[in-house]
Amino acid sequence: MSDLILFWHRRDLRISDNIGLSQAYKKSHKIIACFCLDLQILQADNIAPARVTYLWGCLTKLRQRYQQLGSQLLILQGDPTICIPQLAEVLNVNVVVWNLDGEPYAQKRDQSVAEQLRAKKIGVQTYWDQLLQAPGSVLAQGGKPYTVYTPFWKNWIQHPKAAIAETPDSLKGLNEEEQERIQQFVIDLPSLQDLGFNWDKPLLLDPGETAAQERLDFFAQNKLRDYQEQRNFPAIDGTSQLSAALKFGAIGIRTVWQASVTAMENSRSEEESNSIRTWQQELAWREFYQHCLYFFPELVNGPYRPIFKNFPWENNEEHFQAWCEGKTGYPIVDAAMRQMLETGWMHNRCRMIVASFLTKDLIINWQWGEKYFMQCLYDGDLAANNGGWQWSASSGMDPKPLRIFNPMTQAQKFDPEAEYIRHWLPELRSLDTEALLTGKITRLERLGVGYPEPIVDHNRQQREFKLRYANVKTGL
Description:
By secondary structure, this protein is mostly helical. The protein contains 23 helices and 5 strands.
């Protein structure tokens, strides 16, 4: 076998701070990379056009980076369990390297690929790259995985974090003979239209590692010191907006963490330090949910708490459609849903508000909302989305299970001037701020601007949900 190494990209669409690629580079500078357009993922019913658009952009930028380094990114399309072993065999590579993924489908896929490669006498080397702490490295007493965030955080923060991985500065690609051998199944990167997707609106963050690094630098220098105070106000640009970059690995988590460490070292006040620590806790939430999904893969198919496995949801189809379209008659809820429809992204505070509204006001199964989010969000991540929805629905790993958000109270607290509401609901811009925050918009005003009446009464539905919860809890 040759000294050629095949590096398989998945959720690590970058060159810099890539542990698997860095380790491969230490063994040989002759590296060829590949990415497989997995039809099982692209043809799923929970795929978002905006998310595929971001992925496509990242692949385009990554191909350019490999060309600059003297190598290339090969594009495959089909079943990775067939394509990857086939490519490795044709290229006669010594080893295939990739970074691990904790999602159930990915684990099953990777195990199949590894078994086939080993059967062909091709080496397999894998690394944890997308997490600061690999699953199993942070465990509770007795070696059990954590199911509550706070003790997880207290343990997680004590563990040393890996340094930023070395970035290759030059690579060797394929020779002419090797190039000829792969022509049969390597393709050009298809257009979004050829893949069956169309997203013609701008993305919150441009694809690729350069844009992700620039956003991190901007956030760390201009926003991080005020993060704790501003992160909950959706009308303010107060969050990192790196969720999509982290989901697809357009930026390394060690790079992100080091930015927080550097900011902490340079903080000038207790308030700044508290803001930085709060952001670090949010990064730990991301890791917590990935650890949970790794150890409890059944979360993909249902609730963690048994009480919700047979919960009597109302599941009103008309109410669900109104929620999806941002036509519930509750301004803060509708503004958030319109933001997602227009941009493929929603502010995290608003994600909690609309999730609580769907599950506690409309009494609709959280899995409906979870799937719809994945059909819309450009940063849709299985672990974070599932964890967030189960938290909001009270069906997940949460020491305070019965949490209900009042949409009016949330609006008054986090959009006090109704700036966010007015931005995403332009038909309401002329209405009084107090009316927008309290929901006390007259019927005449609603008719005048074409805004719907509330589809449910919050107080009544809150009582109904609590009653159903109590009945299920007591076995009635």
